[in-house]
Structures are given as C-alpha cells and as structure tokens.
Amino acid sequence: MAKFDRYMLSQLLVLFGFFALVLVALFWINRAVVLFDRLIGDGQSALVFLEFASLGLPKLITTVLPIAAFAGAVYVTNRMMSESELTVLQSTGTGPWRLARPVLAYGICVALMMSILTHILVPLAQAQLNQRENEISQNVTARLLTEGTFLHPTEKVTFYTRIIDADGVLRDVFLSDRRTPNEGVIYTAAEAYLVRNGDGTTLIMVDGLAQRLSNIDKRLATAKFRDFSFDISALVDKSTSGSQSIGNITTPDLMSDWSNLEKRTGTSAGVIAEEYHSRFAQPLFCIIAAMIGFSTLMVGGYSRFGVWREVVISFGLLITIDGIRGVLVDPVRSDASAWLLMYVPSAIGFILVLAMLWQASHPNWLRRLRRKEVAP
User: Fold this and answer.
1) How far, in Å, are 284, 293, 365 from residue 100 at the CA level?
2) Residue 374 has pLDDT above 60, yes or no
3) pTM for the whole thing?
4) 264-269 — which CB contacts under 8 Å span 24+ positions?
5) E strand or H helix at 129, and its extent?
6) Within the chain, what is the greatest distance between any pair of CA atoms?
7) 154: alpha, beta or left, given left = phi > 0 and alpha = psi -120 to 50?
8) Which of 235-239, 241-245, 251-255, 305-309 has the highest mean pLDDT?
9) Rounded mean pLDDT of the chain?
10) Is the Cβ–Cβ distance between 189 and 206 less than 8 Å?
11) DSSP collapsed to 3 states, 338-357
C-alpha cells in the first residue's frame, strides 16, 4: 500500500475503534441495567451478572460494528476535507476511485472482524448463555434464598422469608400456592429448611399454619402443624429445550446436511438458510456502510458550511438499506430457495456506491450533456 493508503487506513481504524468502544459501552450499560435488576432480583451473585453480561457482548458488538464503520468513515473523510488533505490530492490528479481504495481496505478489515463474530464467537457465546440460563432457571435454592423480598419463583406462587440465618435456617416463612384451580393455599411457618432430595428440593416448615380457601363455596380451612414438608421442585420449569437452537451452531456445523439439522433443531430449511446466509451478509454490509459514508461526502465536495447535509443523506441511505434487509428476512424463512434475497441490500448499496463515485469523478457530466443538446 502507498503511504497515503496506510495513513488514511490508520486514521480510519483509530476512529473506528473509538466509535465502537463508545457505542458498545452505551448499549452495554443500557442492557446491563435490565440484566442486573433481573439477576440480582432473583438472588444471583455479582459474578453471575458479570458472566451473563460478558456472554452477551459478542452479539451486541455485531449490532454496533456497521454503525461504527460508517461513523469512522464519515468522520475521517470530513476531517481530511476540512483540512484540505483530500483537496490537495485531488489537485494532483488523484480521483475518487483512487481515494476510495483505503476506505475499501478499511471496510474489509471491519468485515473480517464481523465474520469472526458471526461465524464463531456469537454462536459459541449464545450456546453457553442458554446453557447457563437453563441451569439458573432450575436452581430453586437461588430463587428462594433472598430475604426480605416477596419472590415469584413461578406463576401463581409467592414466597417470602424475613431473614436467613448463617446456618441456612429460614425465619418467618410465607408461601402462597395458587396453582390449583378454584383453590388457594397459604403456608406460614416460624422457620423452614431447604433439603435436597435427589433431583428434587423439599421445603421443611416447622411450627406453622396452613390456610386453604375454596373459591367455589368460599370456605376457609385452617390447620396447624408442627412440621410439614412441601415439594418445591415443580416451582421451576425444568423443561429444557430438547432441540438445539440454530443461532447456537457455528457456521462450519451449519454447512452439514440441512435435513439432519431440521430434525435436530426442529426448524424449517428457510430459517436455517436465513441464519446461514445472514452471517455472510452482515460482513458485506459493514463494507457497504463504510463506502457509503465516504462516497456520499465525495459527491458533496468541499464546502465551508460543512457537510452536514451529506452526512444526513448518507445516514438515511444506510438506514434505508438496513430496513430493506429486515423486510427480506420473512420471505427467506418461508422459502429457503430465496436465499439470494439476503444479499440484495448489499447489492443495492454497492450500486449506489459505484454511482456516487462515478458522479464524484464526473461532476459536470450533466452540464456537458446539456451543452451538446443545445449546440446546433
């Protein structure tokens, strides 16, 4: 690469890293607040929260990379225009096609990063995340061992304990079970213990009261007990997905026989085709995002009033192309043979980039055409 290419590529990568870091931090904090409230509220530790937040990062980064690639290309191009660097190069005969070469290399670098994420890291992270979610959803003890808070381990069940001693004894326990139709039962006890019984978990309540209300005849029956065992294994849905999710399978494994994948995952061939080809279409979209940001500003040229109009236009084009990609997902899922539709947005963006670069190389072509028409 020429010195100018290396210089511009280094500027693009530095700004890309900055924008990617800022955007990932913003999106991650926004999601982490919700995740923290859900996990800590269920009695999980801070380490579990950090584990879940880390496993969600690869998928979050795939959302941010195209935006960061676009922002880096727009910022660097605008700065080099305002500092007359591109103007000097153009005055020496360097055309827009030549200036676009480092931007293309920059887009390819971002596309390689996106490829590693979509083909390997995101599926592995999602598989691990789903596994940990299943483990935690079956952890009844973690759901119940939160003192001073009314918890809902499952629908129509409420649990409360005032305090938990250092030896694990639960004091002042309240348990409301409304799962049986037309009947509700409330258990209160001075203390309780959680006992593992093989694969199940039993709550042993001591010195308590059971109140059973029939909603049919509105009769309340009460019974005091010295000790009472309550099987709480059913409080958590232990059903794990018997089939593997398509999003959790790496791309090399997706290249195998799709008929077997349909049986293993329980999904249609269209869903598999959409997932498979979207992993190749996303890196291409990163290249298009960078090239659109550069070519739109090149069409606008230098202006002392700034390039905000061109920035807005380029951002609008990017949003439109991304919107087209969202519209084409359902047709591919319905018909696997329509997988080429996944690459239509990138093809449209590529045509727009070629048209804008050609316009930047021939800025006066329309005026010359009109002169030829006017001339006798």
Assistant:
1) 16, 11, 21
2) no
3) 0.71
4) 267/243, 268/333, 268/336, 269/336
5) helix 122-137
6) 112
7) beta
8) 251-255
9) 84
10) yes
11) HHHHHHHHHHHHHHHHHHHH
**Residue 300 · residue 310 · CB < 8 Å:** yes
Residue 325: φ, ψ to 5°: -60, -40
Between 343 and 95, the more confident residue is 343
Three-state DSSP at 206 gives: strand
Q: Are 235 and 140 in contact (CB under 8 A)?
A: yes
Place of tokens 């250092």: 166
The rounded distance, in Å, linking the Cα atoms of 301 and 189 is 78
Assign residue 201 a region (left: φ > 0; alpha: ψ between -120 and 50; beta: otherwise).
beta
Instruction: Tell me the two tokens of residue 330.
Output: 């359902």
AA identity, residue 163:
I
- Mean predicted confidence (pLDDT) in 295-310: 73
Residue with tokens 């709550």, as numbered in its chain = 203
Which amino acid appears at position 315 of this protein? Answer: F
Assign 199 a pLDDT band (cuts: 50, 70, 90): low
